[in-house]
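Design request, tokens follow.
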């Protein structure tokens, strides 16, 4: 990328410095909400993020043809601003720049301004984030600020820009005036640079080429991950530190006998659960830790993080026999069901970091605040255990609760005190809630609830997963097509690859949690639609966007896991699981072909692709097929089914023979295993099947060492 960055800097050298890593000052004072004097086109949108900007003096347009037609007609560049409703620095830039009348005048005079919710339009976000990273040495984030030609090609990009010149760098108004001047005087050069970057983005999205997969990838990937472990604080890398749920899941599956790998898993899980990134009072994890020790979080809570973390803690609780991890998984899921669940049963997207104009205000405490709730004696014990001091560890002498020295007995003693603090905290002004219901993120939470219901023996989690799935199947499917989501009605955007992949995976998990064929059938239908709409029939693998969705400046195949699993990786795993259940070898070939395109990247960047590595392991390692046969509701059948669901068996395929009509047609694995007088269970490893067993103890023994 270095030659590209050098070329793009030619005519905007002075402005480019604004994209450097300047210190980001917190606003010293947070003004009151300005009176409503303006209303722009965003007032007609459903996205909470766009609605937050509906009364800016900036003449915002939503993404669409109207904005680009205006830019072409008036020969203006486009200013594209991308963010999301719970983004702290998006709020800061709005207060400093987009609510500023003078800055708005510059924007309105020289640019056509477009605002995009990255969660509603991940395709737009993905393309232009690649441009930001190409022009900023790999750095990126939100708010994302990109300047485009009228045909959508980026020629300059950055993230947050301060409202005034400082540290030798131009502020946002200065930058706008410089770019507008260069556009007027040297437009051809900017268009040339935009064309060059658009070509780069098209090429950057291409896979490596077809390659054979082999099992040697897997131990090499384990070694790569272990080389990146933070030996002191757990997890990977330095600050800021994000929960590595997917990598921990891969290590738990692939290296159970590797002491270093299991230490990496437990160290990370312990450190996160005991750190300030975990809400010690109300449950649930924040988005990331601003420091290396997991102590001070960025306080926004995202549905997708809590889904993945609840699942990995549930899996680790069974795999490692750790009751503490079970408790954390339950607390996270209970938090989601209590505070992130819509009345209809689906799940909201996120809560903000800010409340009462301050980041973290809702979550932090002082000793006096705790004493006012608990009384002096209990407060003293509570503060000692959770690290609360008069000086604090956060702003203004406040403390982010953490557990510096874990003690199981003290944890139990703290439980009623935490409950009292939780009730007191409910009286505070809560952070903003983003109440969008996104199919892909709901898919992750449905999977977490379905899997945890089996591992933890908790039927209410399964029931919650079913309720959410039925909402999506009813309200987020139109003419057979998945929609992106729902907010006060269905979103107008059709589903992307991650929606199809994560929801079909969730339906398979729900099928295993319930034995109901309707979920398997819908998962299979969505998988067929995934192939029809997203597969590249010529070269293999899957595009992020469907064949009939809006054509952007590039159509990409992205195998990398970000905050959520890659759509390609999840689609491949779903096809492999369906292939085993339905005996459809064509699905397995499509998944194998897709993953083979990325072999070189798997070998060189394992930590960036743990979900695809899980799928590679599922393809190349022996799979464990478990069939439970009997009558649902009958005690013997339910006991065997509960044992199969509770056990930790990586690469497991679970099916139920209940005598339902056509079930063996849907699942050929059930042939010859119809219900008999007694409930039975079979365990097959690879091509070898054992004799059926009829007691939970025998089944558990088989599954412990299949």
């Amino acid at each position: 990328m270095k030659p590209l960055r050098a070329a793009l800097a030619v005519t905007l050298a002075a402005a480019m410095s604004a994209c450097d890593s300047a210190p980001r000052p917190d606003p010293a004072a947070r003004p009151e909400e300005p009176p409503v004097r303006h209303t722009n086109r965003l007032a007609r949108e459903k996205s909470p993020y766009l609605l937050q900007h509906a009364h800016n003096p900036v003449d915002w347009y939503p993404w669409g043809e109207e904005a680009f037609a205006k830019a072409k007609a008036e020969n203006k560049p486009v200013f594209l601003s991308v963010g999301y409703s719970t983004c702290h620095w998006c709020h800061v830039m709005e207060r400093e720049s987009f609510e500023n009348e003078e800055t708005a005048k510059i924007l309105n005079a020289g640019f056509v301004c477009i605002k995009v919710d990255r969660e509603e339009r991940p395709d737009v976000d993905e393309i232009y984030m690649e441009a930001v990273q190409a022009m900023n040495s790999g750095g990126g984030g939100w708010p994302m600020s990109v300047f485009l030609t009228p045909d959508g090609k980026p020629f300059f990009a950055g993230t947050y820009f301060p409202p005034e010149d400082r540290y030798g760098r131009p502020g946002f108004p200065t930058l706008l005036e410089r770019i507008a001047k260069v556009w007027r005087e040297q437009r051809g050069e900017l268009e040339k640079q935009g064309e060059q970057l658009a070509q780069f983005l098209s090429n950057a999205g291409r896979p490596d080429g077809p390659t054979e997969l082999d099992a040697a990838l897997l131990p090499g990937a384990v070694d790569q991950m272990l080389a990146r472990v933070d030996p002191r604080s757990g997890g990977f890398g330095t600050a800021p530190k994000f929960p590595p749920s997917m990598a921990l899941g891969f290590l738990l599956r692939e290296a159970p006998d590797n002491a270093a790998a299991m230490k990496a898993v437990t160290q990370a899980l312990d450190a996160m659960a005991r750190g300030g990134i975990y809400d010690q009072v109300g449950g649930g994890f924040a988005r990331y830790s601003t420091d290396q020790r997991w102590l001070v979080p960025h306080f926004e809570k995202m549905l997708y993080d809590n889904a993945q973390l609840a699942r990995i803690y549930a899996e680790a609780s069974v795999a490692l026999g750790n009751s503490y991890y079970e408790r954390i998984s339950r607390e996270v899921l209970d938090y989601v069901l209590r505070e992130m669940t819509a009345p209809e049963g689906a799940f909201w997207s996120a809560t903000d970091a800010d409340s009462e104009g301050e980041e973290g205000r809702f979550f932090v405490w002082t000793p006096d605040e705790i004493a006012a709730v608990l009384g002096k004696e209990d407060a003293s014990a509570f503060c000692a255990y959770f690290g609360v001091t008069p000086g604090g560890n956060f702003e203004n002498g406040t403390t982010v609760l953490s557990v510096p020295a874990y003690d199981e007995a003290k944890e139990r003693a703290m439980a009623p005190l935490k409950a009292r603090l939780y009730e007191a905290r409910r009286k505070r002004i809560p952070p903003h809630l983003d109440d969008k219901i996104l199919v892909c993120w709901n898919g992750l939470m449905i999977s977490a609830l379905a899997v945890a219901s089996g591992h933890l023996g908790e039927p209410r989690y399964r029931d919650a997963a079913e309720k959410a799935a039925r909402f999506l199947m009813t309200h987020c499917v139109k003419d057979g097509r998945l929609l992106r989501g729902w907010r006060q009605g269905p979103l107008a955007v059709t589903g992307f690859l991650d929606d199809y992949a994560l929801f079909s995976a969730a339906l398979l998990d729900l099928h295993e949690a319930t034995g109901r064929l309707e979920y398997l059938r819908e998962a299979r239908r969505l998988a067929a639609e995934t192939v029809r709409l997203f597969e590249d029939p010529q070269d293999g693998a899957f595009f992020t966007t469907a064949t009939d969705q809006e054509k952007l400046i590039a159509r990409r195949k992205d195998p990398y896991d970000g905050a959520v699993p890659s759509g390609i990786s999840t689609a491949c795993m779903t096809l492999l699981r369906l292939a085993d259940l339905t005996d459809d070898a064509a699905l397995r070939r499509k998944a194998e072909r897709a993953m083979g395109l990325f072999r070189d990247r798997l070998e060189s960047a394992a930590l960036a692709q743990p979900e695809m590595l899980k799928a590679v392991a599922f393809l190349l390692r022996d799979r464990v097929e478990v069939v439970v046969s009997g009558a649902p509701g009958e005690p013997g059948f339910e006991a065997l089914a509960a044992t199969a669901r509770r056990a930790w068996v990586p690469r497991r395929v679970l099916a139920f023979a209940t005598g339902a009509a056509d079930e063996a047609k849907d699942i050929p694995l059930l042939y010859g295993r119809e219900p008999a007088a007694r409930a039975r269970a079979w365990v097959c490893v690879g091509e070898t099947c054992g004799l059926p067993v009829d007691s939970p103890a025998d089944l558990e023994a088989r599954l412990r060492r299949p």
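Comment from the thread starter after seeing the answer: thanks! Residues 600 and 702 are 37 Å apart (CA to CA).
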